Amino acid sequence: MNLDKLIKMANQIGDFFEAMPDRQQAVIDVAGHLQRTWEPRMREQLCAAMDGSAAARLKPLVRDALISLNKPAAPVGKSTSGG
After folding, report:
1. pTM of this prediction?
2. Fewest beta carbons less than 10 Å away: which of 13, 14, 41, 50?
3. What does the pLDDT average to over 37-41?
4. Which among 41, 50, 43 is positioned nearest to 13, based on CA atoms?
């Protein structure tokens, strides 16, 4: 799919979730929406472009959501707080 179109669609999703009062929850919800509704190849294409100019064209909320999608999940029962 065209990268410009993916960026536009991702930013439109970000526009919707920006209205949420809790930014952390908005990031989680954007990531969840992309995970549930986008084909894996669409997410992969957008994530792969994050190293280039695409990152600058994405809303910060969307960038953070994409970054969270690429982080490995913490093992069940393990704390990530380090303490």
Report:
1. 0.81
2. 41
3. 95
4. 43
